[in-house]
């Protein structure tokens, strides 16, 4: 009997079984080049099925060399377009044509291929797929899980490890009963068991299948299988929830219940990885569902453990925006978005919230305010309170902080001039009712100002004001600049003596413009006028003004580098062509030659520029001395 096998039976290893069983005796085995090409493509993508199929072809070749069977490779390799259309049956059609041309029986374990071939009049031998995982017995790797195990971590050449314990008290370490490092063969078997079981079980499915990475959802396990070349070895990470909670298990439960039931909200649940964000999100989802809200989820991958009443959606066509469009037709009351991470995620979250859907987003943040700041620049500032009105920060499985987010038109805290009134986002501690932060536009920048006092009674707005004054003065001064705030609306600025005229401007016009922009009164003086300043007004850094004689002062000319979008620039107009050393607090940084334009330019992103910018950020004194 002449036989043409398709790709499915070659992968399953059923061809060599037929040969060794004698069922092909007296006939010829015609192996399609299309099968070889498909297996080669799968192997190049790092898929185990490709390697399994190639190993089977090698066994068939050995049997042919021993005279057990006559085997020929026939047909042509499929084109790139046909390879891309493999899922639509292009390669299967090539294989059926070869069966007709060689008057052969088609051997397949693909049910659709078998039925199609029968419909065209071909002789077909259909064999059941070789399923190596058994759904009744579950997964082999489940044996590593104990009651308090959240995740297991397996990798070729390493001892199996697990994360065990309660939320916030997880311990990562080797599995006690592991038989040493996992071999390549063992890892391949476990990976094959996971993927096969997910395909064949009604309790699982493959969430993502890309070259080198497969993500599986099976029962309450989310399993990631990584393979070379994406990873440097086969790695399996299986995660499951270790705690099922309700909203009653958390602090502020009554207040949060009332808040959720009052109206549809925009909520960000934030915290560090492993803090219990998803567990809290599940509790919120079940609470809303129990109170007659239509609840859906948006997840990629889907790993929230929620009841069957809550439908879990993933990225439609690989894009959560498509999922959002579909959900707007479904009309949920609340949607749980796990997780909101990239700019596109925040945009989709905001669009759905502004469409009137209650949104609960899960996002990574190390502080409660950081979650809100991730919206800045991604959502128009004035719209933030409409998108997110509640921030819940989770730490060690507990609700640590809850913020209420509102907007007002007011003068920011710490400023006094009425003409500085503007829209201000207030972030209020839910427990105490005390404002913790204000977010607003200051001098064309969006700033987040803490309202509590810092060290030495220096408020957040004071630090902001000092920074902005320094920035404004440095834009016109070439030397060192220092700022001393005198109350809420006055400041003294100390500059080099040569910079006085530049900063004040003709008739005081330049400093008046700066005062108007900042809403502050600014007095400009030289460094020599500052008590214990340590400057002599000439930039040499010699001890003066009451500085202790024993305190070493920076040598050379003090400069104030200007940072542009592409360069860090040091102005040295009177030293064109000279070779100089640039120092920070008298520590050598680099040597350079002053260009014809009277400046030194260092390209941003270079190692030298990074060192110089770091020194500027640390408020070190930058000096230039002759080399």
UniProtKB/TrEMBL annotation:
Domain (K Homology): residue spans on this chain: 487-589
Region (Disordered): 528-563
Domain named PIN: residues: 1-115
Keywords, sorted A to Z: RNA-binding
Gly residues bias (residue ranges): 535-544
Membership in a protein family: In the N-terminal section; belongs to the PINc/VapC protein family.
NCBIfam families: PRK13764.1
UniProt-recorded name of the protein: ATPase
Organism: Candidatus Halobonum tyrrellensis G22
